[in-house]
Design goal:
Helix content is 45%, strand content 15%. It contains ten helices and nine strands. Bound molecules: S-adenosylmethionine.
């Protein structure tokens, strides 16, 4: 049975963690009147849920946010945009984007890796307009989703294929930027980020998704990394962006919060160790400023 003596000599944190891990298990054992030799599936499920809650609490306690006027994040325009434009954008990202765009070191381009239906792209265009900035916004996406073969059905659908979905998302992207960013159209090239940075390194001119030429290359003032979230890809996206990111420029990693399981979390931990980067926000995603 669990009692006060079980935690004698433990640190405060160890006690908390042990309590959270053990109590559901022990409650069940107490209930059954004995301790099971192996955890039952209910016990394991309870422990998993408890761990999830604990991670969320820890991530919340470690949050570091930036003050951004509420009227910006909660603007009526953004509300309407977010109803109509599909995407997954948390308010922390919106604050970080505004902060980065408000503090850009120069008029060098902003780069986005992974555009999906254009929600983040349109939000960045809106912030550029609010701040009267002329930095080009250049994005890349091939709309080829991880683990989604073109001729495979979408889930258990008998009628819709992944190729239909891809075409729909790409068309939605073009339609969304053509409406919401029509006064300052971003340049989007249909490339994976590795190909995009190769083109950037070679200062190639590419055709964007609406047929305009765009000359790539040169310094980058802000990079939003939201493509393939695996360690290998996110790390390479960071290294490629880092090569061109200006001092005092920003880099924001989507889905990098401490409570998530995305491998990009490992990348942000590594960036945090570098003396060349300063953590600006963790709300919950990591926004860094390049300081050297
Ligand atoms: C989470 S969505 C992006 C969401 C978008 N940034 C937003 O917030 O509205 C991820 C996108 O990354 C794209 N993607 C995946 N791997 C990529 C890669 N290696 N290079 C560029 N884009 C990639 C996918 O096609 C998908 O559209």
């Amino acid at each position: 049975m669990i009692d006060a003596s079980s935690f004698r000599g433990c640190s405060k944190w160890a006690k908390c963690v042990s309590m959270v891990m053990l109590v559901p298990d022990q409650l069940l054992a107490n209930e059954l009147g004995h301790r099971a030799a192996f955890p039952t599936s209910t016990q394991m499920e309870l422990q998993r849920t408890t761990m999830k809650i604990l991670r969320k609490l820890l991530a919340y306690a470690r949050r570091r946010d930036i003050p951004v006027e509420k009227s910006i994040v909660k603007s009526e325009y953004l509300n309407w945009l977010r109803f109509a434009n599909a995407g997954m954008m948390n308010n922390g990202n919106v604050r970080s984007m505004f902060h980065a765009i408000q503090n850009l070191p120069s008029d060098a381009p902003i780069v986005e890796i992974g555009s999906f239906c254009g929600l983040s792209t349109n939000i960045m265009t809106y912030f550029k307009e609010r701040l009267a900035l002329k930095n080009k916004l250049i994005t890349c996406d091939r709309w080829k989703f991880e683990g989604a073969e073109a001729d495979v059905p979408l889930g258990d659908s008998e009628h819709v294929m992944h190729s239909d979905y891809r075409e729909y998302v790409k068309d939605s992207y073009i339609r969304n930027i053509s409406i919401f960013s029509r006064y300052d159209m971003p340049y989007t090239v249909e490339l994976f980020s590795d190909e995009f940075f190769d083109a950037w390194n070679e200062q190639r001119t590419e055709e964007d998704v609406v047929g305009r030429p765009i000359e790539l290359g040169g310094p980058i003032s802000f990079c939003f990394v939201d493509g393939n979230h695996s360690y290998e890809y996110a790390k390479r996206d960071f290294e490629n962006a880092d090569r061109h990111l200006e001092t005092n420029g920003f880099i924001l990693f989507d889905d990098s919060g401490d409570a998530t399981d995305w491998e990009v979390c490992r990348v942000v931990k590594e960036v945090q160790k570098s003396s060349r980067y300063e953590l600006v926000a963790r709300n919950p995603n990591y926004l860094f400023k390049k300081v050297a």
